[in-house]
Protein backbone atom coordinates (compact mmCIF):
# COMPACT_ATOMS: atom_id res chain seq x y z
CA UNK A 1 0.00 0.00 0.00
CA UNK A 2 1.36 3.41 -0.95
CA UNK A 3 0.71 6.17 1.53
CA UNK A 4 1.08 9.82 0.60
CA UNK A 5 1.82 12.23 3.46
CA UNK A 6 0.67 15.84 3.78
CA UNK A 7 3.96 16.96 2.28
CA UNK A 8 3.28 14.83 -0.79
CA UNK A 9 6.08 12.33 -0.08
CA UNK A 10 5.34 8.73 -0.93
CA UNK A 11 6.90 6.94 2.03
CA UNK A 12 6.19 3.25 1.50
CA UNK A 13 7.27 3.19 -2.13
CA UNK A 14 10.59 4.75 -1.17
CA UNK A 15 11.10 2.31 1.72
CA UNK A 16 10.22 -0.69 -0.42
CA UNK A 17 12.67 0.57 -3.05
CA UNK A 18 15.38 0.61 -0.39
CA UNK A 19 14.51 -2.94 0.66
CA UNK A 20 14.60 -4.12 -2.96
CA UNK A 21 18.00 -2.54 -3.60
CA UNK A 22 19.41 -4.03 -0.37
CA UNK A 23 18.17 -7.48 -1.41
CA UNK A 24 19.81 -7.04 -4.82
CA UNK A 25 23.19 -6.34 -3.14
CA UNK A 26 23.12 -9.37 -0.79
CA UNK A 27 24.99 -12.42 -2.05
CA UNK A 28 22.95 -15.60 -1.83
CA UNK A 29 23.32 -19.13 -3.13
CA UNK A 30 21.26 -20.12 -6.17
CA UNK A 31 21.02 -23.38 -8.09
CA UNK A 32 21.97 -23.02 -11.75
CA UNK A 33 20.69 -25.49 -14.31
CA UNK A 34 23.25 -26.29 -17.03
CA UNK A 35 23.29 -28.03 -20.38
CA UNK A 36 23.86 -31.75 -20.18
CA UNK A 37 27.48 -32.59 -19.25
CA UNK A 38 28.45 -28.88 -19.06
CA UNK A 39 28.70 -28.54 -15.28
CA UNK A 40 32.52 -28.40 -15.17
CA UNK A 41 32.71 -26.07 -18.20
CA UNK A 42 30.25 -23.62 -16.63
CA UNK A 43 32.10 -23.76 -13.27
CA UNK A 44 35.40 -23.03 -15.02
CA UNK A 45 33.92 -20.08 -16.94
CA UNK A 46 32.37 -18.65 -13.78
CA UNK A 47 35.75 -18.96 -12.03
CA UNK A 48 37.41 -17.04 -14.89
CA UNK A 49 34.85 -14.26 -14.44
CA UNK A 50 35.43 -14.16 -10.68
CA UNK A 51 31.92 -15.38 -9.86
CA UNK A 52 31.76 -17.58 -6.76
CA UNK A 53 30.40 -21.03 -7.49
CA UNK A 54 30.37 -24.55 -6.07
CA UNK A 55 30.19 -27.76 -8.08
CA UNK A 56 29.97 -30.76 -5.72
CA UNK A 57 31.90 -33.65 -7.24
CA UNK A 58 32.18 -37.30 -6.20
CA UNK A 59 34.91 -39.74 -7.08
CA UNK A 60 33.88 -42.84 -9.01
CA UNK A 61 35.84 -45.77 -10.37
CA UNK A 62 35.05 -46.46 -13.99
CA UNK A 63 36.01 -49.75 -15.57
CA UNK A 64 36.85 -50.11 -19.23
CA UNK A 65 38.01 -53.25 -21.00
CA UNK A 66 41.68 -52.20 -20.77
CA UNK A 67 41.86 -50.06 -17.58
CA UNK A 68 40.21 -48.74 -14.46
CA UNK A 69 40.18 -45.02 -13.79
CA UNK A 70 38.96 -42.78 -10.97
CA UNK A 71 36.92 -39.88 -12.28
CA UNK A 72 35.23 -36.88 -10.69
CA UNK A 73 31.54 -36.83 -11.53
CA UNK A 74 29.05 -34.08 -10.59
CA UNK A 75 26.97 -35.11 -7.61
CA UNK A 76 23.88 -33.46 -9.12
CA UNK A 77 23.93 -33.87 -12.89
CA UNK A 78 22.92 -30.68 -14.67
CA UNK A 79 23.28 -28.39 -11.65
CA UNK A 80 25.84 -26.25 -9.88
CA UNK A 81 25.54 -23.54 -7.26
CA UNK A 82 26.50 -19.89 -7.55
CA UNK A 83 26.65 -17.20 -4.86
CA UNK A 84 25.80 -13.81 -6.30
CA UNK A 85 23.71 -10.72 -5.69
CA UNK A 86 20.51 -11.27 -7.68
CA UNK A 87 21.28 -8.28 -9.91
CA UNK A 88 24.20 -10.29 -11.40
CA UNK A 89 22.00 -13.16 -12.58
CA UNK A 90 22.29 -12.16 -16.24
CA UNK A 91 26.10 -12.25 -16.06
CA UNK A 92 25.80 -15.87 -14.89
CA UNK A 93 23.16 -16.78 -17.48
CA UNK A 94 25.39 -15.40 -20.27
CA UNK A 95 27.96 -18.08 -19.43
CA UNK A 96 28.32 -20.72 -22.13
CA UNK A 97 26.39 -23.80 -21.01
CA UNK A 98 24.22 -22.07 -18.39
CA UNK A 99 20.51 -22.59 -19.02
CA UNK A 100 18.51 -21.06 -16.17
CA UNK A 101 18.23 -20.67 -12.44
CA UNK A 102 15.99 -23.02 -10.51
CA UNK A 103 12.97 -20.93 -9.56
CA UNK A 104 9.50 -21.32 -8.12
CA UNK A 105 7.98 -17.98 -9.01
CA UNK A 106 8.09 -15.86 -12.14
CA UNK A 107 11.71 -14.78 -12.74
CA UNK A 108 12.65 -15.13 -9.06
CA UNK A 109 15.40 -17.73 -8.52
CA UNK A 110 15.03 -19.97 -5.47
CA UNK A 111 17.56 -19.26 -2.71
CA UNK A 112 19.60 -22.20 -1.36
CA UNK A 113 20.18 -21.95 2.41
CA UNK A 114 23.82 -21.44 3.44
CA UNK A 115 23.58 -24.45 5.79
CA UNK A 116 22.81 -26.77 2.83
CA UNK A 117 25.85 -25.55 0.90
CA UNK A 118 28.02 -25.85 4.04
CA UNK A 119 26.86 -29.46 4.55
CA UNK A 120 27.61 -30.32 0.91
CA UNK A 121 31.08 -28.75 1.21
CA UNK A 122 31.82 -30.80 4.33
CA UNK A 123 30.72 -34.04 2.66
CA UNK A 124 32.74 -33.47 -0.51
CA UNK A 125 35.83 -32.36 1.45
CA UNK A 126 35.91 -35.68 3.33
CA UNK A 127 35.74 -37.63 0.05
CA UNK A 128 33.42 -40.23 1.54
CA UNK A 129 31.49 -42.48 -0.82
CA UNK A 130 28.32 -40.56 -1.72
CA UNK A 131 25.38 -41.59 -3.80
CA UNK A 132 22.58 -39.52 -5.27
CA UNK A 133 19.44 -40.54 -3.45
CA UNK A 134 15.76 -40.21 -4.34
CA UNK A 135 14.29 -36.99 -2.99
CA UNK A 136 12.62 -37.36 0.40
CA UNK A 137 9.84 -35.13 1.61
CA UNK A 138 8.93 -37.26 4.61
CA UNK A 139 10.93 -39.26 7.16
CA UNK A 140 12.56 -38.91 10.53
CA UNK A 141 14.78 -35.86 10.80
CA UNK A 142 18.06 -36.60 12.58
CA UNK A 143 21.17 -34.70 13.63
CA UNK A 144 24.74 -36.03 13.75
CA UNK A 145 25.89 -35.71 17.37
CA UNK A 146 29.56 -36.69 17.02
CA UNK A 147 32.32 -37.14 14.52
CA UNK A 148 33.33 -35.09 11.51
CA UNK A 149 29.74 -34.18 10.59
CA UNK A 150 28.61 -33.09 14.07
CA UNK A 151 25.63 -30.74 13.78
CA UNK A 152 24.60 -31.74 10.25
CA UNK A 153 20.90 -32.51 9.96
CA UNK A 154 19.20 -34.86 7.55
CA UNK A 155 16.90 -37.85 7.26
CA UNK A 156 17.59 -41.36 8.50
CA UNK A 157 17.19 -44.26 6.06
CA UNK A 158 18.49 -47.79 5.74
CA UNK A 159 20.36 -49.21 2.76
CA UNK A 160 21.62 -52.82 2.79
CA UNK A 161 21.27 -52.97 6.60
CA UNK A 162 23.46 -49.86 6.94
CA UNK A 163 22.41 -46.59 8.53
CA UNK A 164 22.50 -43.69 6.06
CA UNK A 165 22.04 -39.96 6.52
CA UNK A 166 20.22 -38.29 3.66
CA UNK A 167 20.58 -34.55 3.02
CA UNK A 168 17.79 -33.18 0.82
CA UNK A 169 18.06 -30.02 -1.25
CA UNK A 170 14.43 -28.95 -1.45
CA UNK A 171 15.02 -26.49 -4.28
CA UNK A 172 16.53 -29.10 -6.61
CA UNK A 173 14.32 -31.95 -5.38
CA UNK A 174 17.51 -34.00 -5.09
CA UNK A 175 19.25 -35.68 -2.19
CA UNK A 176 22.55 -37.33 -1.29
CA UNK A 177 23.26 -40.02 1.28
CA UNK A 178 26.30 -41.01 3.32
CA UNK A 179 26.88 -44.02 5.53
CA UNK A 180 27.09 -43.37 9.28
CA UNK A 181 27.18 -45.42 12.44
CA UNK A 182 23.76 -45.32 14.11
CA UNK A 183 25.38 -44.35 17.43
CA UNK A 184 26.46 -41.00 15.88
CA UNK A 185 22.92 -39.73 15.23
CA UNK A 186 20.01 -38.57 17.35
CA UNK A 187 16.46 -37.41 16.61
CA UNK A 188 15.94 -33.68 16.16
Q: Summarize this, please?
A:
The protein is an alpha+beta fold.
Looking at CATH, the homologous superfamily of the largest domain is: NusG, N-terminal domain
Looking at how many chains there are and whether they match, the oligomeric state comes to single chain
Q: What's the domain count?
A: 2
CATH C-level name of the largest domain:
Alpha Beta
* CATH structural architecture of the largest domain: 2-Layer Sandwich
Strand percentage: 35-45%
Find the CATH topology of the largest domain.
Alpha-Beta Plaits
Poorly predicted spans: 1-19
Tally of DSSP β-strands: 15
Estimated helix fraction: 10-25%
| Main pleated sheet | 6 strands, antiparallel
Mean pLDDT: 83
Characterise this structure:
It is a single chain. This protein is an alpha+beta fold and 188 residues long. The chain folds into 2 domains: 1-112, NusG, N-terminal domain (Alpha-Beta Plaits, 2-Layer Sandwich); 113-188, SH3 type barrels (Roll). It has 4 helices and 15 strands. Strands 10-14-13-12-11-15 form a 6-stranded antiparallel beta sheet, with helices on one face. A hairpin with a 2-residue loop joins strand 12 and strand 13 (162-169). The radius of gyration is 21 Å and the shape is globular.
Topology at a glance:
Elements: H1 11-25, E1 27-34, H2 39-48, E2 53-54, E3 57-63, E4 68-74, E5 79-85, H3 89-93, E6 98-101, E7 103-105, E8 108-109, E9 111-112, H4 114-126, E10 131-133, E11 141-144, E12 153-159, E13 162-169, E14 174-179, E15 185-187
Antiparallel strand pairs: 1-5, 1-6, 1-9, 2-5, 3-4, 7-8, 10-14, 11-12, 11-15, 12-13, 13-14
Amino acid sequence: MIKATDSGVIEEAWLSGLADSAAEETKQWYALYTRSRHEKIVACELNKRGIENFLPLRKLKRHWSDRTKTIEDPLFHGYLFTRIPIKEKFAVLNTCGAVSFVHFGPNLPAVIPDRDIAALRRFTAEELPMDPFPYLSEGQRVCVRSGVFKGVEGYLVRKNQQCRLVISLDVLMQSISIELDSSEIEPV
